[in-house]
């Protein structure tokens, strides 16, 4: 792992593999999830397919800067401030997290990249693709949404189940057990992972870094950020939307809507997939993303050739 300080002063922990001359894929992870949540099979599979692949810890996650000076936000106040004349303070928004990616690219001297975002990471990638068009060669949005989060009955039930298992005070064992339960509840029904595997993953994650306050600040950033639906029409990069039909966190309807809103977006609905990365699907997912990125690279090369001939 490497670290680099970006323009804002935030330190980003990242991993950079593949030939420096190869097309760049930047992978943006979701809420409270470290870069290690990207499966090794997917990450190194993309490297083996000829790409330079960068994955990193978002601010307030993993080994990147922890912004504890901002304290613990009140989600209730943020929710009320969107509906009533009440002010609430937040540490940052998804736009700020999108700026982190742009500044990371600048720090690594990367002018253009293919973005792959999962869940909250998909939201961040959408913002970048809409507001920084010239820097984005393609977009892959996985288990994400273009709208503001809404609480359905099934999602409320999931939230209450998770709340029961959330540790009352920060401790290693409590964090590990909570992580296991979380992944059991949001995982893919058709591709369940055994508890021993989930425990191993949880231990690795908690021992690498554990910051529940950072999770809360990221959640506040999602709650406070504007709906992105008006931005979707501005996305010009070739887009692939991947979503599980059994996702209990962000329903498949959100993925379908995102694909409709982005011009010429391709939609791949995965039967039996929830809100995780089932090992059994990683070979396929690697193939889908690789094909999408290579197609975008071919179109880019054709445009360059046409420009050279006409010029």
TrEMBL record:
GO terms for molecular function: triacylglycerol lipase activity. Pfam families: Abhydrolase_1. The chain crosses the membrane at residues 21-38. Residues 23-276 form the AB hydrolase-1 domain. GO terms for biological process: glycerolipid catabolic process. Gene3D superfamilies: alpha/beta hydrolase. This is Alpha/beta hydrolase.
